[in-house]
Write a structure and sequence with these properties.
about 325 residues; alpha/beta; six-stranded mixed β-sheet; four-stranded antiparallel β-sheet; 13 strands; elongated; disordered C terminus; ATP binding; ABC_transporter_ATP-binding
Amino acid sequence: MTDTVIEARDLRRGYTGGFEAVRGVSFSVARGEIFALLGTNGAGKTSTVELLEGLAAPSGGQVRVFGLDPLTRRAEVRPRTGVMLQEGGFPSDLSVTETVRMWGGVTTGARPAAEVLELVGLAARSSVRVKQLSGGERRRLDLALALLGRPEVLFLDEPTTGMDPEGRRDTWALVRELREQGTTVLLTTHYLEEAEELADRLAILHEGELVLSGTPAEVTATRPARIRFTLPAGVPAARLPLALRAAAFGQRVEIRTERLQEDLTELLGWARENGVELAGLDARSASLEEAFLEIAQNRRSAGDRTDDDTMAGTR
């Protein structure tokens, strides 16, 4: 039986004026799993995570962390969780070490400052004032404070924003290490590569609703693969095998397919038999980015059609 650590059931969050940022979201996260919440700006990611962290009460539905309500049972839940917000408010004149020690003073079972700064790659910057840190270094400091209490559950809200590529990779390695040690991680991110690299499972939110979830492979498998190439001058796309559903833009051709291996084999066989060179040939499965953008575009188009239908009904 799966050991569920985080659970949201029909979760809703409304604001003054009637705006509903989270609309009936349901998912669960198992112990030792990395779960990513994806979505465009305004999709409801942060609003959802704040409910899971016990920072606000849901307008409807239910949240459980360790089987407990994180708001009403905060005294029991909070010492077992670590939270990395999108932006921390640090006193700018304190040094990095002073900031960690100050935070450690109100953290149950806090790690030594030197230990946690070594974990996040800030040991060499320990005596630097916070105001002198780069944006990426401040994100590392945010992460250090989230890890102070050796959390069983770690909430990461856009954890690598502002980090350079090296810092991002180092943070990914640390998150994987934490998972190997049994930490459950729920993260939001705008970096789709980050979700592909880290997440065991993910969910895509759009306008407050959960529209697709699964492993990264399962999510990308819902979208067709593509084959791209350029035909030589004088070879029209109409000469391609009829079984290949191709779209041509001059000599540039794109084939969308759910049978990548079969269609690629047929294409290469046709090219060999006809002595045609396929310049810039590129064949690949759908990426998470493609799946994400297609979901957002399709739902936006559907919304536009609904608006058009509504307007048509009023004319």
